[in-house]
Design a protein that fits this description.
This protein has 203 residues and is of the alpha+beta class. Helix content is 36%, strand content 27%. Strands 1-3-4-5-6 form a five-stranded mixed barrel. Strand 4 and strand 5 form a beta hairpin.
């Protein structure tokens, strides 16, 4: 594991996986400063979920470093950016810094080899995704979905699915593609049944 200083963007519900892309609209002054700083250095930002509310909430232990691969600087100082996931990281400690944005010392985690699902796992995931999309009223191009490789399908669902932050964090922390796919199926089954019950989460 390699230790690194990482500027972090705490954003609830926002996941990034290695190899995946995450579009972001950056409007808060402190995060506009963070993007400007990243563009002047290595173009890297750490996405991580906060554990609570407030100006400086506690953080989950695991996040993902992304590199800015697309950027549009808007006239009023805001940015539209796209991050490409590089590697997951584990927070060692938060650093005492003068910047308006937070920074941590982080251990970069080695990326696992590209995983594949068993045929039954893939079929179960696609079936449950169809059921979940129907319940939620989503329009999905299933022919395009069928052409995705296993890793892109699993991580893509994990990034965009409307699960609660704790459930999203569990998906990020799953070490194998098979474990992540199984958890997605469980979450879809749970939220498909209980999505209309306010405040219901899977803990």
């Amino acid at each position: 594991m390699v230790a690194s200083r990482v500027s972090i963007f705490p954003l609830s519900g926002a996941l990034l996986f290695p190899g995946m892309h995450l579009p972001l609209h950056v409007f808060e002054p402190r995060y506009r400063a963070m993007v400007s700083d990243a563009l002047a250095r290595d173009r890297r930002i750490g996405m991580i979920q906060p554990r609570g509310e407030g100006d400086r909430p506690a953080l989950f232990d695991l996040g993902c470093i992304g590199q800015i691969v697309e950027v549009e600087a808007l006239p009023d100082g805001r940015f539209d950016i796209v991050l490409e996931g590089l590697a997951r990281f584990r927070v060692v400690r938060e650093l005492d810094v003068a910047t308006p944005f937070r920074q941590v010392e982080a251990e970069l985690l080695a990326n696992a080899p590209a995983g594949t699902l068993a045929l039954a796992e893939r079929a179960s995931l696609e079936l449950e995704s169809r059921r979940f999309a129907e319940v939620q009223g989503y329009a999905v191009d299933w022919e395009s979905v069928a052409r995705l490789d296993d890793e892109t399908l699993v991580n893509g669902i994990a990034q965009i699915a409307p699960f609660d932050p704790a459930s999203k964090q569990a998906l990020l922390e799953a070490d194998s593609l098979s474990d992540r796919a199984e958890l997605i199926v469980q979450l879809m089954q749970f939220f498909g049944r209980h999505g209309d019950e306010e405040g219901r989460t899977l803990q």
